Amino acid sequence: MTLAKSEITIKFSELPAAKDLPDKKVELEFTDQNGLTFTAIVNGKGWRKASTQAAEFESWGGVVSGKLGKTELGLQVLEAGIQIFEKVAKTKPPTEEPAT
Predict the structure, then answer these.
(1) Distance between CA atoms of 21 and 19, rounded to whole angstroms?
(2) What contacts 87, CB < 8 A, 6 or more positions away?
(3) Which CA distances in Å does 19 have to 10, 11, 22, 26, 99?
(4) Quick one: which H or E segment has residue 49?
(5) pLDDT digits (tens, 9 = 90+) for 16-63
(6) Which pTM was predicted?
(7) CB 84 within 8 A of CB 54
């Protein structure tokens, strides 16, 4: 039997529902396109930073990543981290017009 490491990255473009937990942690809940529910427990400081960045950026995307775990209610992201990225519109370089 070969042992493997199962890791997961969940991409999102809307802030998930958040529930404060003891020890300065926050539980986030996601539902994917297939109806699977994922929960992730992140550091409260990381969550506050991510939600502040989402409010500051005009267009953004986010990820939660960590080890994949299983609960009675669905799947869980263990040792989760969260990041928010600003989406920057790609600009095309100006095209040169042929000389006449």
Answers:
(1) 6
(2) 57, 59, 60, 61
(3) 18, 19, 10, 6, 63
(4) helix 44-56
(5) 989 999 999 999 999 989 988 899 999 999 999 999 999 999 999 999
(6) 0.79
(7) yes
